[in-house]
Design goal:
By secondary structure, the protein is mainly alpha-helical. Helices cover 71% and strands 1% of the residues. It has a two-stranded antiparallel ribbon.
């Protein structure tokens, strides 16, 4: 992971403001090769995987049963690339702050901003804006590309492709970008709490992938009761057009996941304030 050399705090004559701290975090974020590669991987995943899955589904369309054709969810296919994109963005979120601890650069950062908390606020705000600014067009391109690809197929005379203006579609597509953004902030919170890249990525993978899989081994009654409240499952509800009976509402699910993330950032802020660099 490449680093940026900061000037000595004594060489800076201006007053430290939140705007200047945010500008510094913007410079550091875009100076890292990992930022460009991770965001590129997320964008390619969102667009490419959806098209690949759509192509595979259409190649088997003639062999699908009538029931399978009737229940085909083109919206889910359109945003299916988020499964890999969330890993790329979540890992980048961890790296945004854990990388500074691994290189020792965090000491220079906190020497320049002694109050500390503006650093975490600036990192979170800049990273969230960058992530959403790239995730939103990626999800829109993925959705419209997949719908165009599916446009010629029909079920009972009706196209399986859906319009962006159809009920719930815009919310699901835009919500996908919001979900990816919150995943990135969740990774940033874990990186700030654990201050270690490997530990942060492991914790992220455990929360998003391992725990939901292990929960499936429990009795169905317990799994059904707990599963909707897991961070990943709660956040993904925003992308569901026809949620299951036991799942959270789209808005409620994303709000709960955002609450988990906010709690993580609060803990990270408390530890940043109390611990040595």
């Amino acid at each position: 992971m490449s680093t940026v050399t900061l000037s000595s705090p004594a060489a800076f004559r201006g007053r430290v403001t939140q705007r200047r701290v945010a500008r510094s975090e913007w410079t550091k974020l875009w100076s890292l090769r990992s930022t460009r590669w991770s965001l590129l991987a997320a964008v390619v995943s969102m667009v490419g995987i959806g098209l690949i899955i759509a192509a595979v589904q259409m190649s088997r369309w003639s062999t699908r049963s009538v029931q399978d054709r009737a229940t085909f969810d083109s919206i889910d296919i359109g945003v299916s690339g988020y499964h890999l994109a969330l890993l790329a963005i979540g890992v980048l979120g961890v790296l945004v702050i854990s990388g500074e601890y691994s290189t020792g650069m965090i000491r220079s950062t906190l020497a320049a901003v002694p109050k500390r908390l503006p650093v975490l606020c600036a990192k979170a705000a800049v990273f969230a804006l960058v992530t959403f600014a790239l995730a939103l067009p990626a999800t829109l391109i993925a959705f419209f590309s997949v719908q165009a690809f599916l446009g010629h197929e029909r079920v009972d005379g009706h196209q399986i492709a859906v319009s962006f203006a159809a009920p719930g579609v815009a919310r699901a597509v835009i919500g996908g970008a919001a979900y990816l953004t919150v995943v990135g902030l969740f990774g940033l919170a874990l990186g700030a709490i654990l201050r270690n890249t490997a530990a942060g990525i492991s914790a992220l993978a455990a929360v998003l992938f391992v725990v939901p899989s292990l929960l499936g081994m429990l009795p169905s009654s317990l799994s059904t009761a707990v599963s909707p409240y897991l961070p990943s499952n709660a956040g993904q509800a925003i992308m569901s057009i026809n949620p299951a009976a036991h799942s959270l509402s789209p808005g409620g699910g994303l709000l709960l996941f955002s609450g988990y993330t906010f709690a993580g950032l609060l803990l990270a802020a408390a530890l940043l304030y109390r611990r040595d660099a």
